[in-house]
Known about the structure:
Blueprint: E1 3-7, E2 17-21, H1 31-40, H2 42-48, E3 59-63, E4 71-75, H3 87-104, E5 109-112, H4 124-141, E6 145-150, H5 161-193, H6 195-211, H7 227-232, H8 238-248, H9 253-259, H10 264-272, H11 280-289, H12 294-303, H13 313-323, H14 329-338
Parallel strand pairs: 1-6, 2-4, 2-5, 5-6
Antiparallel strand pairs: 3-4
Helix pairs in contact: 3-4, 5-6, 5-13, 8-12, 9-11, 11-12
Amino acid sequence: MPFEIVRNDITKMRVDAIVNAANPSLLGGGGVDGAIHRAAGPELLAECRTLGGCETGQARITKGYRLPARYVIHTVGPIWHGGDRGEEALLASCYENCLNLALEYGCETVAFPLISAGAYGYPKDQAMAVAVEVISKFLLAHDLTVYLAVFGRSEFLTGKKLFRDVQEYIDDRYVQRHTQKNLESRREMLWQQDESAALDLDLALAAPKKQEHPAPSMTRPAPAPDWEAILKRTDEGFSAALLHLIDEKGMTDAQCYKKANVDRKLFSKIRSNPGYKPSKPTVFAFAVALELTLPEAKQLLSRAGFALTYSSKFDIVLEYFLKNRIYDIYEINEVLFQLDLPLLGSGTNA
Length: 350
């Protein structure tokens, strides 16, 4: 089942359980803790009084009362002391214990805040990394839909080299596209106003290209493509192409849709309907799960009626990851989330 990072008020989410980043007393406080207690009403505090508190890294469960969620899972995150007092292990334990409680109580959907990243001072990028690692591993073995709810706009990744590299790649591609568009507009205007000047511009642009051809290569020519096999698959739709690729990669269906962060029900729909037309993020999710090269991903996109374009920031980001063979879908989604772009998989962009 999928994992999705969302910008939302966790107290308003209609899920089976929400997680409360509580203090050890479980009697309410500031931040997310206080907001959940206010939204749930005094009945929540009354039940919490019967629990006898909670140790750091552990979790307790109560009813949701006036919240849209059926349950509240309370966990106590570690206070940040620089990272050398076992904070990472304790934070991971928070997520693991909450997920196990959700499973024990039959929850199908659960929403987390970013635990310890507020008043407890845990660096947000590191808190995000722990959350993503624990949740993604858990979902490989269990069917559960998990949301990581972030309220407002937070900067998690701006200091990471990967994020800076992606930003630079986007900027470079936008410059190329806008330079080309400006050049095309200039040529069109010249042809309307001064054909002689327009011809001179075209000749000037063409001249360098004639000098750029490399010397004849002595390397062995590339093998001819297997046109018979290509023609056999010309009319193959997205569903058939995807299933063919899963077999080629030696994966099971479950391995593929879990790695793609795609809901099992959506995958069943794709498998049973040869004419199914998925969204672009869903196609990209499977391209990442199957670890396709950029040309292979373009082929899969074409089966669903899509193409890569430099007019789309989303496409540029995915091109960067595929060209660099980065196939961690959660790492990709962190970057997409930071850039306010659609996430891969998760069932929301079916």
